[in-house]
Each structure stands twice: as C-alpha cells, then as structure tokens.
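Hi P.,

Sorry for the delay on this. The queue was packed all week, but I finally got your sequence through. Input first:
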Amino acid sequence: MQTVVGVRFKRAGKIYYFSPGSLDIKLNDNVIVETARGVEFGTAVIGPREVPDSDVVLPLKEVQRIATDADRAKVKENDEKRKEAFKICEEKIAVHNLQMKLVEVEYTFDVNKIIFYFTADGRIDFRELVKDLAAIFRTRIELRQIGVRDEAKLIGGIGCCGRPLCCHTFLGEFETVSIRMAKEQNLSLNPTKISGICGRLMCCLKYENNCYCGKKNTRKKIKPPKQGSKVITVDGEGKVINLNQQRRTATILLDDSKTIVASWEDIIEKDAENAES
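Then the structure:
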C-alpha cells in the first residue's frame, strides 16, 4: 500500500498521485510538485489516503512543499504573462499565414516551458513559428495540436441543457461515447440533437447508459420485451410500440385497438412463451 494525495493542476483536469512525505497536507491545500513538465502548482483534491501499489506509478514523487502566498502570487503573475503570450502568438501565426487556431497558452510554474494549444484541420509546419516564439520568450516552447473536444474542455461554454459544459467543470477525462448509446436510449439520431457544442456526441449519453443495458443493470434483472414484439398482458394480447427503460414499462397496442402501459414484470412475450413450452 502507498500513502498518496491526489493533485489536480487545472480545473476538471486529470488527477495525479503524489506522496505527501512528512507534510501534513489537507484537502484543497495548494502544493508545489515536480512533474515531467517541470515544477508545477496544483491543488490537493484528494486528501491523504492509502491505495494499492497497482494504482500508482512507482517510484512515487513526493510533494515538494505546501504553497505559500508568494507561490500564489507567482501563479497570478504567470497568468498575466499567459495573456500577453497569447496575443503575441496570434500575431506570429498571422505573420506566417498558418492555418491554425490558437486555443490556450499555459505556463509551467517555474516558467521552464510555455505550451501553446491549437487546433487545425491537418498537419501544420510550425518550425519557423517556434523559432520566433523561442527568440521572444527565451524559454522552451511546445506547440500541441488538440481535438475539438479538448478545445471545448479548455474554453468552456453552455450546453443544450443550459448548464456549463461537463468537460469544463468536472469531467477529468473523456470517456468513449458511441451512437449505439443513443439508439439504446431511444433518442433521436439527429446529429444536431445528440451532439455537443464541440460537434461530437454529448458526453452525457454515457451517464444513464447502464440503465438501458440489461446485462449491466444492477436492479432485479428482468428482460425487457422487444419493441414490435407480440405480448400477452392481463388486459389481452397486443404489440409493444414503445419502451420506457427507466420506468421499466412498455406501451402496448392491444388487438382491440386500446393502448395500455404495463410493467415488464406483467408482460409475457408470445415468442418466449412458445420457447418455454
């Protein structure tokens, strides 16, 4: 077992484990740690706890120190520099006539590296741009091409639900979302209705998907009838015309043209009945 604290470096960013060492680190403390990118300023979003060795990458780096007021002042100073670097980079992109869109600029805490995030339709030859930026800022320069989902996560916005984007507020990592999830939830397959502002399938399609997958449902496992199948109910025989996965009910058009709503438990599929007999 390893004693760790979980540190996040940006809002809704990935959480990384570090050893607290002899420091008394509490939840939401600002800390200074060393990463592969250099010295970074982060926030302890997971307090000290023990986790199995398999959950961490060994050797585990220790937190250097709890951040001071001077460290927080330096972060604000870096943020002002970041805004200026953004303007300069946009100007240089225009000078070199590069078909790329600058999205965000990030300084490491020790100003050992400046990272420029951009989007583009294809590969971009930005070697001359890097030379210009390195001559201006006199530090290591990294240009990183990102996708549209990452762009939305960095910039933020309001989703069709009227709330701030999930990826910008709390989703640490993107999960795989497929069109099959929309089909299982009986949603309209109109791309404009199931896509986020990034143009990709909405992350929230993943949230309730397990409720619609019988094999993953943690509630009592009752196989739902198939839409369009012939069934037997206490009110007579009919055809399933709609399913409500969350309520676990089916809308049935009876043979006498009446429509009823019945629970899955009260429905017998005719095919299933024949199979059992």
